[in-house]
Amino acid sequence: MQLNSLGHIAFNCWQTIPDHFPHIELDTFVVMPNHLHGILIITDKPVGAQHCSALNQHLDCNTEQFGKPVPGSISTVTRSYKGVVSKRINIIWQTKGQSIWQHNFYEHIGREQKSVDDIQQYILNNPQRWADDPENPQRNSDHQDFLFDISF
Fold first, then answer.
1. Which of 19, 23, 36, 140 is deepest in the core (most CB within 10 A)?
2. Any residues with CB less than 8 A from the CB of 84 and at least 6 apart, and which?
3. CA–CA distance, 31 with 5 (Å, rounded to integer)
4. pLDDT above 90: percentage of residues in the chain
5. Residue closest to 74 by CA, chosen among 98, 116, 45, 34
6. Are 69 and 79 in contact (CB under 8 A)?
């Protein structure tokens, strides 16, 4: 991927995540034209984080409830990242408070090395598959609802 100025914002902000969240390490990542793939490694329990506990036969580990963010959780890290990138791009575009991201994100906990290796390969190979990606606006006219009609 060759990044334009907006892509460089997304790239540079991603690289600073550990500066703001010292319990997070970055692994493989790639900034795509309209999204990002990346692996975040939680290295230590952040201050103020809740312990994981089994509730109602499912694992509730740093899960946020509406209006109650969990400090240092993946959701908090992701929200912070998306927010700072959006703010910087909105300054460039002279817009205010416009989101440039999809509303959610996909997460997967890789507990086994094979799973992590597969995800790393998926991320590394993703740029070569962009032309066939269903999220590619040039391929799929249903995905034309982005704020900025410009790639990262």
1. 36
2. 13
3. 12
4. 49
5. 45
6. yes
